[in-house]
């Protein structure tokens, strides 16, 4: 047997194991930092919609939007002035499949969504869409956001009425025509059939778990971008949802 072919001694094997472990940790740290850098990139500044909802005497309106994991999207809109309630949930599928375990399979037709209740006297539907497109998610990613893949993470607007549909479709056309983004917008517009609140442990997740690596990497930068890009809309204290069963 050649000297080089001899089995490594215990100390040598231990050193090699430590080296391999260190290399793996370095690679993981590099990947994490790269993802963090990507998630923290400055969002695209876009113009407000040319077409918006008309003024009305209503004090409350709702909007349902989907843009990846609902934790971050809910967290963003909870910091927007004029918004009174934001609930994480599911939309696009049947009521019997509106639960996290089933939706996560990607075959239900549901998208992780948020239902936003707002005062149209303080903020319009179009302005909500401006935040949605520029801060809350990347509207050019098809069936994914960041590390999350599947149709349940698609970019979708569920319009509650003809006015919301008209504003949404007009705004998408406006943004595409102006080439506001480096790639075409893939956001789909669908008529809202129903919204189903998610399980209680998903509500207020960003606020309750700021130290979660996922939240710190992918979602907290969105709050900072909201504060920086929309100082007139940003509110420091989030409006938290209450009253949903755990």
UniProtKB/TrEMBL annotation:
<feature type="active site">
    <location>
        <position position="69"/>
    </location>
</feature>
<dbReference type="Pfam" id="PF01625">
    <property type="entry name" value="PMSR"/>
</dbReference>
<keyword id="KW-0732">Signal</keyword>
<dbReference type="InterPro" id="IPR002569">
    <property type="entry name" value="Met_Sox_Rdtase_MsrA_dom"/>
</dbReference>
<feature type="domain" description="Peptide methionine sulphoxide reductase MsrA">
    <location>
        <begin position="62"/>
        <end position="214"/>
    </location>
</feature>
<comment type="similarity">
    <text>Belongs to the MsrA Met sulfoxide reductase family.</text>
</comment>
<comment type="function">
    <text>Has an important function as a repair enzyme for proteins that have been inactivated by oxidation. Catalyzes the reversible oxidation-reduction of methionine sulfoxide in proteins to methionine.</text>
</comment>
<protein>
    <recommendedName>
        <fullName>Peptide methionine sulfoxide reductase MsrA</fullName>
        <ecNumber>1.8.4.11</ecNumber>
    </recommendedName>
</protein>
<keyword id="KW-0560">Oxidoreductase</keyword>
<dbReference type="InterPro" id="IPR036509">
    <property type="entry name" value="Met_Sox_Rdtase_MsrA_sf"/>
</dbReference>
<feature type="signal peptide">
    <location>
        <begin position="1"/>
        <end position="36"/>
    </location>
</feature>
<dbReference type="GO" id="GO:0008113">
    <property type="term" value="F:peptide-methionine (S)-S-oxide reductase activity"/>
</dbReference>
<dbReference type="GO" id="GO:0033744">
    <property type="term" value="F:L-methionine:thioredoxin-disulfide S-oxidoreductase activity"/>
</dbReference>
């Amino acid at each position: 047997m050649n000297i080089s072919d001899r089995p490594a001694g215990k100390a040598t094997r231990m050193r090699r194991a430590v080296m391999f472990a260190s290399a793996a940790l370095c690679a993981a740290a590099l990947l994490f930092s790269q993802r963090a850098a990507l998630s923290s990139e400055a969002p695209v500044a876009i113009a407000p919609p040319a077409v918006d909802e008309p003024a009305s005497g209503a004090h409350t309106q709702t909007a349902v939007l989907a843009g990846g994991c609902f934790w971050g999207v809910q967290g963003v809109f909870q910091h927007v002035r004029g918004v009174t309630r934001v609930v994480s949930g599911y939309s696009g599928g049947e009521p019997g499949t509106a639960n996290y375990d089933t939706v996560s399979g990607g075959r239900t037709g549901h998208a992780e969504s948020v239902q936003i209740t707002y005062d149209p006297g303080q903020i319009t539907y179009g302005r909500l869409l401006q935040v949605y497109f520029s801060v809350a998610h990347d509207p050019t990613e098809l069936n994914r956001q960041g590390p999350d893949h599947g149709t349940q993470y698609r970019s979708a607007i569920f319009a509650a009425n003809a006015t919301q549909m008209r504003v949404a479709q007009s705004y998408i056309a406006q943004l595409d025509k102006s080439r506001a983004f480096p790639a075409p917008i893939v956001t789909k517009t669908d008529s809202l059939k129903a919204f189903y609140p998610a399980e209680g442990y998903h509500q207020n997740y960003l606020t309750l778990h700021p130290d979660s690596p996922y939240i710190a990497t992918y979602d907290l930068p969105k709050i900072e971008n909201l504060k920086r890009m929309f100082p007139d809309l940003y509110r420091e204290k989030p409006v938290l949802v209450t009253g949903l069963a755990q």
